What we know:
The protein is an alpha+beta fold and 429 residues long. Helices cover 35% and strands 16% of the residues.
Amino acid sequence: xxxxxxxxxxxxxxxxxxxxxxxxxxxxxxxxxxxxxxxxxxxxxxxxxxxxxxxxxxxxxxxxxxxxxxxxxxxxxxxxxxxxxxxxxxxxxxxxxxxxxxxxxxxxxxxxxxxxxxxxxxxxxxxxxxxxxxxxxxxxxxxxxxxxxxxxxxxxxxxxxxxxxxxxxxxxxxxxxxxxxxxxxxxxxxxxxxxxxxxxxxxxxxxxxxxxxxxxxxxxxxxxxxxxxxxxxxxxxxxxxxxxxxxxxxxxxxxxxxxxxxxxxxxxxxxxxxxxxxxxxxxxxxxxxxxxxxxxxxxxxxxxxxxxxxxxxxxxxxxxxxxxxxxxxxxxxxxxxxxxxxxxxxxxxxxxxxxxxxxxxxxxxxxxxxxxxxxxxxxxxxxxxxxxxxxxxxxxxxxxxxxxxxxxxxxxxxxxxxxxxxxxxxxxx
Length: 429
């Protein structure tokens, strides 16, 4: 995919999708303290897109900038500029996420809020392991990203990383099958739908007696669906039991055999022998949900889980089309800047895809109003976090004004201000 038009002929259009107060936020984030060589925040952002989004090297970016009269600086000076602007890029990403979350609430006010969560790994140049994880929250109704979290390799998949609102229905894969995360969703008044492993989440009968998962699964015939009233077992750390339903489907014989072969191949690659219970559990698809049975039957819940693949496709687009995994640096702050610009570009592509019907004939839409900008959080206990605190008014909008095409909305409740890019990488100075 040729992305070079983004920094050339399409640049004015891209700017029309961004807040008008770039100079203000760049100064507040200390991204543009001095203007020697780079005379404006727009020029700095254009340099960042040329380097991270288009994929030019630092030297090529500096050369292109000089020829296009965008900026005049060396590749070393450019490196320092980008490294110092990582927090600002995260702030712009936070504003776009908040903007999209507000528009979603305006366009689908009565729709059930179905959220898909998942994460993907990103490696630095020359690395053979995981260096960073990008965690996304995807709204199923609009297929738009409503939260993004960047962590280092130690940041595992967990429902606890996200802010939740009452009534949300959250769908996650087996990586999110942990009692603490399930309890966090329940405590917020939201509902969970998560696929289980046979050993990760111990289950009980509603009376507190042990629930033999595999014994109940064996009662199913191929193609049959089963449902049982269960609860998660209390954990030693004080996590309480969460009542819910276990729903399972026994796979067809060919599908079960293919699943067992996959388990054996993965174990062989790691030089291990799979547990017999793991091979038996591969014959089934089983999920745990707190969604009431009066709302969704077992067949509906299992059918809904199939839509989780949409977030996998989102990651495939990010990596295959926008090259999210082709990091250009090993320096932590440059890595953060790279990932923020990639995700910001992805959000702008989403906005374009949802506005193609009413494009103006001249190619430029209305510039969104300046978003309220809260100071970047100074909390760096576990890392750097961009965007307002989750309990404040947040960088959501102008508060009851009009956003794009006369679409009016009320500011989202406090939890939505947390829909921002939380940079949880190790702090750098």
